[in-house]
Design goal:
The complex is a heterodimer of chains A (about 325) and B (about 240). Chain A has about 325 residues and is α/β, with parallel strands linked by helices. Chain A has eleven helices and 14 strands. The longest helix of chain B has 26 residues. Classes of the chains: A alpha/beta (about 325), B mainly alpha (about 240). Bound molecules: adenosine-5'-diphosphate and magnesium ion. Magnesium ion (MG) binds next to helix 1 of chain A. The site of adenosine-5'-diphosphate (ADP) has 11 residues of chain A, from strand 2 and helix 1.
Chain lengths: ~325, ~240
């Protein structure tokens, strides 16, 4: 398969801040690579170096085999980029903005209009094409950014948090768009959301403090989450000792955690041993012992947990 | 070339898409007229020329050109569109010249809108239209030089107010350096060649020559090298500071 994006030991600091320490990666045609990591991990900075906005302090980036540093124009012409926040010229209408992009991308006359119309249609912008971008809602603004990035049907598509701040419908739409385009492009998306990785990415990389700390499929990442397949139950506080003891005695259970008592109820969480599926056993146990369960949830694990587990960074980590 | 024109076209579209452009043009025409009539004694002088009109251009440009230039790069940086622009297949210098040209054309249009002045003197008397044409040309060149300075300064900051003040100050110094008041201060102690160098840096002196109809190579060279120098500095600054 053709390697369309290559980063070789990229490094970038801003004054005293080492934003990207050492990042190497390759993305092949047909791959959708998810870029995961806590805030400030260096995802955006890496993307800015890949797209030629920032010059790396060390290392090099190639797009379709073309060095971004040596032949920037050529490399940039192979590339569609949606910067974080989808910046666009707010005083232009969506259509005139895309006309500008199409001209820069080398289209003229009929071909220009065909490409603009196609990009508008693909991102569902036909209805607001003649509205000024600054008057559009956040979701539509993001679509303008997407339309701009895919207008020339680039071989490489790099998107920085394409679904951040969108409502569920809009997220779904954007993910659909990415999946649709995936097979004949190399795509990189950065995200905070694990479902997104599951839904669209063929592979994911976790970045922390400027380094790659994990690289694999979404599933492989998920398996590394401590709460993946954990079972949480809510029971009466009075029963806590008996239930906790019984849960801990189950073969597949590694550990039982308990939360605070709220309104006379308590949450227990049984963590499975690596690879074990404990939901059925827990269910059977509760039934056998006739324990009244207010709530039972099989947890899938949170990305934040995986960050914490993999990165040892406690900054900004939250969990439910 | 194609890219430069694409950028210029987009920028010009942006100027005329907002009321600001029209407000600016009106202010420019009104002020040049007002200065000529009220302060320059356009009628009382009893001469058919546009001297009193052109005399005030350097002082007007001092404020109006930095006001146009301040948004050129500061706004791109503030809105984040600079990241978009710089990751499109356009070189930095193409973007800089494209934006500069758009602003310069815009000022040129505002300048052209002062044509009623020119009609007025032709109705009232027999002016030397060659001199008037040269003055327009000189005024336009001078505006370009102010603009290049403003564009360069605007790349230094996200804050348009700061961009305006710094650019206006630099332009002010370059205008003042031709006044006898300033030169006299240096004459007391500095060697003659320094005083001459300072005087030759003055926008005013070169503009005065041109507006008397004397278009000389040194004056052309002066304005074009100011433009070239500051646009070059502009490229360096944008490349260095685009991410900051
Ligand atoms: N232009 C900049 N100037 C100074 N520091 C920066 C700049 N851009 C990013 N940083 C710093 O570099 C680190 C990585 O940032 P970024 O790449 O934006 O992370 P992410 O996109 O993963 O949230 C952060 O600590 C951030 O504060
Ligand atoms: Mg980011």
């Amino acid at each position: 398969m053709a390697v369309l994006v290559e980063a070789d030991r990229l490094r970038k600091s801003f004054g005293p801040i080492l934003a990207v320490e050492d990042i190497s990666l390759r993305v092949e045609k047909g791959e959708v690579l998810g870029f995961l990591g806590p805030n400030g991990a260096g995802k955006s900075t890496t993307m800015k170096m890949l797209t030629g906005f920032l010059e790396p302090d060390a290392g090099r980036a190639r797009i379709c085999g073309i060095s971004v540093a040596d032949r920037p124009k050529e490399a940039k012409s192979k590339l569609g980029y949606l910067p974080e926040g989808a910046p666009a010229y707010g005083d232009m209408t969506a259509r005139s903005f895309l006309n500008f992009i199409a001209e820069v991308r080398g289209f003229d006359g009929a071909s220009k209009h065909a490409h603009v119309d196609a990009a508008l249609a693909r991102t569902g912008l036909e209805g607001v094409a003649s509205q000024r971008i600054e008057t559009l809602s956040k979701g539509y603004k993001r679509r303008v950014g997407l339309a701009q990035a895919i207008l020339h049907d680039p071989e490489v598509l790099i998107m920085d948090e394409p679904t951040d701040g969108l409502d569920p419908n809009q997220k779904h739409h954007v993910r659909g768009l990415i999946t649709e385009m995936a097979k004949d492009k190399a795509i990189i998306v950065s995200t905070h959301i694990l479902e997104e990785v599951e839904a669209v990415c063929t592979r994911a990389i976790v970045i922390d403090r400027g380094r790659i700390v994990a690289d694999g499929t979404a599933e492989a990442l998920q398996r590394r989450m401590p709460y993946h397949n954990a079972v949480a139950v809510r029971i009466a506080a009075a029963e806590v000792e008996r239930v906790a003891g019984a849960l801990a005695a189950l073969a597949g259970v590694a550990k039982v955690e308990r939360a605070e008592v709220v309104n006379g109820h308590i949450r227990l969480r049984a963590l499975p041993k690596p690879g074990a599926a404990i939901a059925a056993d827990v269910g059977a146990l509760l039934r056998d012992q006739s324990i009244i369960v207010e709530e039972l949830v099989v947890e899938r694990g949170k990305l934040d947990d995986v960050f914490r587990e993999i990165t040892t960074s406690s900054e900004g980590a939250r969990h439910a | 070339m194609r890219n430069i024109w694409i950028v210029t076209k987009r920028e010009l579209g942006a100027y005329f898409g907002t009321p600001l452009a029209y407000v600016f043009a009106v202010i420019f025409v009104a002020l040049t007229g007002a200065f000529a009539f009220f302060i320059g004694n356009f009628f009382e002088r009893g001469q058919a020329d546009l001297q009193p009109f052109f005399n005030y251009h350097p002082w007007l440009y001092l404020l109006l050109v930095p006001a146009i230039a301040m948004r050129l790069w500061a706004e791109e940086r503030k809105a984040g569109t600079i990241e978009l622009l710089m990751t499109l297949p356009i070189s930095t210098w193409e973007a800089i010249i494209g934006k500069f040209l758009a602003a310069w054309i815009f000022i040129g249009i505002a300048l052209a809108l002062t044509f009623p002045m020119w009609i007025t003197v032709n109705v009232l008397g027999n002016p030397d239209n060659g001199v008037i044409l040269a003055s327009y040309f000189g005024s336009f060149l001078m505006a370009g030089a102010f603009l290049a300075i403003g564009s360069c300064v605007s790349a230094l900051t996200k804050n348009q107010v700061i961009a305006f003040i710094v650019a206006a100050t630099i332009c002010f110094l370059l205008v003042m350096s031709g006044l006898e008041l300033v030169l006299g201060f240096f004459r007391g102690w500095a060697p003659a060649f320094i005083v001459d160098a300072i005087a030759s840096m003055s926008f005013l002196n070169h503009f005065e020559l041109i507006s008397r109809g004397v278009i000389t190579l040194p004056s052309l060279f002066f304005y074009f090298s100011i433009i070239a120098f500051f646009l070059f500095a502009n490229v360096v600054i944008v490349e260095q500071r685009k991410a900051a």
